[in-house]
């Protein structure tokens, strides 16, 4: 289990770094685009489309890192209950519900890749499989992260 957990931690770190670099690229590209449009009075035709696609990748990569670090928003309705066994089962159930969602997300992402992957983006000419694959890859990574976290929650619960 330690090797799997180490892989999940490394996957999360890689996604976090990739999302960070993409965010830096997005900010620079947006700044250059604004400069070109309003100061140089000449726009970059592909910048808005590229920014949109970068933001999609940031969303899925960032969600992997946020899930691993438990930084997603949640409504902890049962936080007041101090029973450690209950809390362990509750966390496990929440992670397994996330797994169900992420499996559906991965499945639908693969369908989108299959149906629309041969299209090209109108301005950049980028094959759309690069964009739709963010859904499938993000969903698969999230599934793995939540399975590891569910196992951690279940195995760390105190024995009654």
Describe what this molecule looks like in 3D.
The protein has four helices and no strands. It has 160 residues and is mostly helical. Helix 1 runs antiparallel to helix 4, helix 2 runs parallel beside helix 4 and helix 3 runs antiparallel to helix 4. Helices cover 74% and strands 0% of the residues. The chain has helices at 2-38, 47-68, 84-116, 129-155. It is elongated, with a radius of gyration of 20 Å.
Features:
160 residues
List the quaternary state of the chains. Answer: single chain
Structural category is mainly alpha
Low-pLDDT residue spans: none
Give the CA-based shape.
Answer: elongated
What pattern of helices and strands is seen along the backbone?
HHHH
The end-to-end span amounts to 23 Å
Could you give a quick summary of the protein structure above?
By secondary structure, the chain is an all-alpha fold.
What's the layout of helices and strands?
Layout: H1 2-38, H2 47-68, H3 84-116, H4 129-155
């Amino acid at each position: 289990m330690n090797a799997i957990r180490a892989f999940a931690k490394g996957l999360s770190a890689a996604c976090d770094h990739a999302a960070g670099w993409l965010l830096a690229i997005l900010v620079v590209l947006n700044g250059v685009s604004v400069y070109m449009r309003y100061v140089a009075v000449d726009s970059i035709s592909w910048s808005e489309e590229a920014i949109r696609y970068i933001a999609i990748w940031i969303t899925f990569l960032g969600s992997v890192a946020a899930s691993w670090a438990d930084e997603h928003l949640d409504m902890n309705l049962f936080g007041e209950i101090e029973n450690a066994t209950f809390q362990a089962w509750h966390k496990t159930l929440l992670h397994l519900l996330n797994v169900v969602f992420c499996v559906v997300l991965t499945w639908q992402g693969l369908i989108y890749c299959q149906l629309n992957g041969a299209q090209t983006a109108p301005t950049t000419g980028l094959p759309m499989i690069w964009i739709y694959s963010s859904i499938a890859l993000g969903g698969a990574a999230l599934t793995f992260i939540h399975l590891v976290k569910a196992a951690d929650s279940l195995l760390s619960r105190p024995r009654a």
